[in-house]
Amino acid sequence: MAEWWAWARGKLLVDRRLILVYCTVYFTWGMAMNWFGSWAEIAKFTFWWQVITCYILYMVPISLLLRNLPFHTQYAYGLVAMGFLEFGGYGLETSYAYPDNLVDRFFGIRNFSLGMALFFALYFPLGNWAVQRIYRLLFGPGR
Length: 143
Known about the structure:
Layout: H1 2-12, H2 16-39, E1 43-45, H3 50-66, H4 71-91, E2 95-97, H5 102-107, H6 112-120, H7 123-139
Antiparallel strand pairs: 1-2
Helix pairs in contact: 2-3, 2-7, 3-4, 3-7, 4-6, 4-7
């Protein structure tokens, strides 16, 4: 376990500007997705501030751990992470799925959380790619 903590610490100790870019991108992405989920009546957080707990406090550290891994590896680990998040969110009712929503109608009600986890697992490889591009654009390629 000490080995894992040493590895994780090395991945998490990064330039503060990189963390700021992650937080800005993920917060904006989270607010937009929460708005879209409400607007399309698919799903939403019970409270807006859950964007902070889910996207910044949960997803940013996981993204930092997964960055620089191949796309498929980030997606696979992201699927596990999002599976736990989706299961917990709907199980604890901190997330709300609209009845007879688009995902339910297309894939069936029993596949809703799985569909959400499969979709949101893409956030890790896509988020890492986007943050890397923005960070290099703002601060140069040497970082």
